[in-house]
Structures are given as structure tokens and as C-alpha cells.
Amino acid sequence: MSLWDGQLAYRPDTPAVAGITIANRGTLAKLLLSPGYHFGEAYAAGRITVDGDLSRLCEVVYRSYPEFGMLNRFWRRMQSLGKSSLSAARRNIHHHYDLGNEFYRRWLDDNMLYTCAYFRDPGMTLEEAQIAKMDHVCRKVRLMPGQTVVEAGCGWGGLALYMARKYGVRVRAYNISREQIEYARERAEHEGLSNRVEFIHDDWRTITGQYDAFVSVGMLEHVGIGNFRRLGEVIHRSLRKQGLGLLHTIGRNAAAPLDPWIERQIFPGACPPSLRQMMDIFETRQYSVLDVENIRLHYAETLRHWLERFLDNLDLFRDELDERFIRTWRLYLEGSVASFAAGTLQLFQVVFSHPENNHIPWTRQSLYAAEYQPALLADAIATGTPRSS
Amino acid sequence: MSLWDGQLAYRPDTPAVAGITIANRGTLAKLLLSPGYHFGEAYAAGRITVDGDLSRLCEVVYRSYPEFGMLNRFWRRMQSLGKSSLSAARRNIHHHYDLGNEFYRRWLDDNMLYTCAYFRDPGMTLEEAQIAKMDHVCRKVRLMPGQTVVEAGCGWGGLALYMARKYGVRVRAYNISREQIEYARERAEHEGLSNRVEFIHDDWRTITGQYDAFVSVGMLEHVGIGNFRRLGEVIHRSLRKQGLGLLHTIGRNAAAPLDPWIERQIFPGACPPSLRQMMDIFETRQYSVLDVENIRLHYAETLRHWLERFLDNLDLFRDELDERFIRTWRLYLEGSVASFAAGTLQLFQVVFSHPENNHIPWTRQSLYAAEYQPALLADAIATGTPRSS
Which of B275, B308, B379 to mutate against chain A (most A CBs within 10 Å)? Predict the structure, then answer.
């Protein structure tokens, strides 16, 4: 680590993964006061520069100092546990998702999926892994042609359109980001799916109707722990008794707020829940948790792909965006790779159902079969009825 | 439903699944006062008789009245949430498991596994499904030859011996039931496995050493919620940082005590935990939950097999055991089929690891492959390290 005057302040015993240069005394002072917040601020402003592997540096720091960034924990708690009201939700989502579709298109996959991919086979491209993720989700809720699905938080519509196209279902998909919904509607029109996928510019609280599946991929982080019981009620009124639901979310091993800098600069109002916190969604109505899968290493891999594409586009970005914005996003992507690789963040997929639903998968075999055969599952279900006594 | 004088007290709208006869006025009074406890008492004493399908009757009751048996909830709470001390633990376990190996041998499988089986293929026999369960558990913790395993609560030793024989590992297995441990040691001797499987007549709290896997199948129900943090500490000190652990337990969708009659007559001190309650085990040390599978319908099926064998042996039992004992056990088995079929009880298998462990399975594919190939998994693990940035 180098200070502004070239002094070497600290040389750790472990082999160096990156060199850090701190531009001035004020930056160092702020860093010592509140490292979790000011490292991000100073990096974005160019007052801290890093020579070497930034992701790896973050990972080493996260592993050594899990409390990193926790100084700001208390004043922030109200906010992240808080009651994300409808209007606050709109403001927060606008901050992150209405940056401009063009910006995200440069480094996401063709389907514009801004959530963890599933690298079923290690050699997969990002495009393939995002399709594998969508198939994994569709298989987990056992989609069958003719069924209906509600999706809470649909992003640019990639999953909703895929479910309709590949699994023959009808989808109602909700999102409060106007730019994303407009993009999704155009795509539905273009693909001739407007009659089977309805994109609704509204909040999950306004979901109406009853469906065979309830799916939400990458929205729960923004819902706010204080709203989980309400989400449980929305699920209860909209999921048929014999249906299956799935929540896909960034999570924690134990309750903690998001890194304060990321929460402020990147995801206002976001809080990745622990499994304990998620139980608020299910316990009120005694819903059954059927399957939890933690695929955090897949998110580290997904983020590495995004980062690679992001860095490939740096010159283009520099023509359009200011340097501070670019450095902010770069740090967010590199730091996120580190968080998932170091195990400070998790990625949970949780499958659940009404407690009395016996039309649940007998085993998880069909998730891993070469061909998806939902029809075969129906036979196994029959075993759920008593045979003799 | 018939009363002692032949009056028909209640005729439900749904088609009858069984006829109930109540022998006298006192029985009815007690039943109304505390149905959850006195139904079992009166059935065991023959003061209530059931003509028809008892499991199905229980299932209908559980589905219609989930609060059935909850009147005794409060005075019992202290007990089931309670601090199951070492001496109380020994007393409780003795009550249930030292009934005599001969009794259990009559209706369990050849391996004497007294826990939920896994009917991987619907046509499996109980024997096959118990072997499939052991393989499922061994694959979930990715056993490899030469590794070491600690098992907390090993029953009659079936799983410990299987792991050593089929997966080439060394096992230390703990149990506080003397009869079970003696049986297990004899079997190890007989199979020539005494040098690789050590059966220890002691409590899980006394586990020493470090192991590649921590496995516990069907013990957690007896541990007591108040001891979960302590169990987490035992896991933390005995599971290697790159190891995997598995807990297999009866559970609940939300916290509730066990049926009061079953807790008193069958499993003193037992309490099936909710997932929220189980988080006490993992959260203190920030352990990662990697995989949760709920296979409750497999337990309904397992219990149907046990019940069938139990009923096949009724005449033999009548020579050796008193009628009240036989009726008690019959009701317990029939009621348990109903609880798992109705969804009032769950069966969770939870896989977990140290938070920084990146030697975790990349996907769950290997659980469902025709041949178990742990070697292949090692390649995928390499993906956990950053590739470029």
C-alpha cells in the first residue's frame, strides 16, 4: 500500500494481490474512520487507485475482516430493515434500473438477465448459463403447457418470455421500472408473445388472480425484510393450492445489512436476507419449504463474466459516462465477485408450496435429467396417497 | 361416530373413512377436554375403537383441525424447548430405544434403520429405499475413500457400517442408547469393520477430533431447541473447514411442540424443529446452508411399510407384549403416516459447510447420476477461483 508521498504504510505477510495508492491525507483519514463507505467513495473519485486484481484484493479483505464496512451498520439499519413503501420502492428501483437499457445491454447476456446464472456445465458461456438458469427455475416449479405463472419483479422480461416460448405457459409479469417494462413489452410484441405474456407496470403488492406458479428472481433483495409477511400474504392469495413457488435471491448466512457503499451508490434500500429472515414469508401461513439451493459460486462466475464484458467496453463507456460513474460500477462488480467467492454473500433458490399440497415433486431427479419430462412426475405423485393399513 | 349407548353423535358431510366407537361417558368427557392427549390414551386402553382406516382418519382430522392436540401446548412448552440435560437425554432415549432390539427387528428393514427412507424409484422395497437413503446422504456430503466421518446419534449403526463398507471412510459414531451401541459393536465385529468404525456410548456433546464430514440422521428431534447453539459449536469444532455436514430431521413448517400424546408415550423430550429454529445451529458461526430437501412424502411411505410389517406381526406381539403397548404403537405409526401425508410434519435434510469453504459441490447433479463419481467434482471446484479481471 502506498501513501501520497510514496511511503509504504503496511506490508502484509501474505503475497501481494494488488497495490493500492492513496492520493492524500484526507482520504486516508476518512478511510480509517469508515472504511466500508469511504473506500468506495475514494475509489470512484480516483483518490484511491489499485494496481492489480481488484476482485482478489476485495476477497482477501472480506475473508480477513468480515466486519469490514460494519461501522455504518446502525444508522443504516432502519433503512434496510425498513418499511419500503410503494413510493420509496419506486424511487429506489428507478435509481438502479432506469440508468438506460443501453448501459446494461453492453455487459449483460442477450436476454438481459441481471441475476445469477447457472453454469450447469463448467464450460458454458454466459448466454448458455443464463438459459440453463431459466430452465432450472422452470423445472423447479414443474411448468407444464397451459399453466399460468405470475412473476414478481420481471426485469427486462427475459424469463417471462422464455417460460411462455419454451414451456407453453401464460405469464403475468410485474415490475415498477418503467424503462424495463417498456423494453419487455416491445420484445413481447416483436416475438409475437403479447397474447401470452402480459407485462404490468406495477408493484408486487398489487398482484391479482390465481396462478399455478409464483416466480420471483432477483426481487426479494429489494423488498425489505419488514415487508416479508406481506409478501407471504400475496403469495398465499395468488398461488393455487396445488402450485409451486420459487424465490431466487441474494442472501446472507446470518442477518446483516448490505455493504453501506453499495447500498447507497448502487442499490438503495436493498438488503439480502438470511434464511431465518426469509421464514417470515412462509411461516405465517405454514407454507412448506421444499427445496433450498445455494449457488453462490455461480454468482461469482456470473459476475466475472459481467466484469470482463464491462472492462471490454471501457473505451465506449468513457465516451458516454463520467469517470466517477465508471469507477463506481467497476468497484461494485469487482467487490461483488469477491463477496460471492469469499462466502460473505449467498445465492438462494427456495421452492415452496401450500402446506397441504401433495402434488409436489417426489424427488429432484427431473431437474437433472437430460430431457425434462413433467408427465412422468405425475405417476410418482400418486404414491402420496395411502396404500393399505 | 358411535357412543357407548349406540347413539350417533356426529355425522360429517364428507364420506366416512372410519367408524369410531367411544366406550363410555368418561372417555368422551376427557376427549373433549384434551383431544390431543386423550384420544391416544383412550385408543391405547381400548376405550376408543376404530373400524376402518386409522391412518386416513388421522389425516382427515389433521387436515381439518391443525390445532388438534394443541390444548396441552403451554405446560409442555418448557419441556420441549427445554434444556435437555445429559441425564434427561439418557432417560428419554432409554424410554424409546431400549425397548428391546427384537421388537424393532420385527418391523424395521434388515439394516435396522429407524429413520425416513428414500424411495428413489417408486417401486422400491423398504430395504432398497433405506439403502438409497444412505447413498443419498453419503453423496450429499461427497464421501471419498480415506476420509473420516463423525456420526451424532447412530442408532443400531446401519449407516456408519454402510459408509465404511461402501465408501471406504473411517467413522466414529456416538449414541447414548446402550442396547443400540452393543448391537452395533457386535455387527461391526461380525462384518470385520471394527478397525474402521468405532461405536462410542456417549452423548454428542462429548464429540472430540476433527472430521471431513459431520452426519446426523434422526437425532436432532431429540436434541431440544435450547441446545441448538451448543450443537453448532460442536459442529464448528469437529468439522474440517473444507468438510460438509448433513442433518436429517423431522421438522415443522413453523415452530410447534410435538403432539402431546406422542411426546409422552413414544418420544419423551422430542421436538421437531422448524427451519427458523434450525438456524440457531448455523448462524452463530455464520455457517452456510448449501442444500435443504424436504422429503416428507417419503416418510409417509416409510411409515406405511413399517405399519404393514407391524400389523403382520400382531399375533407374535400379542404373545410377548400387553395389548395397551401394542395399541399405543399402532396408533403412533398410523398417526405418523397421517402427519407426514397431511403435511403437518416435514422431513428435512440440510447440507451445510464452513462459510469460507469453496470445496462445495458445483451442482447437485452427482446426487442423481447413475454412478457416483466424486472425482469429477474436484474439477468443477477449481471454478471457484477467480479467472481474470
Answer: B275
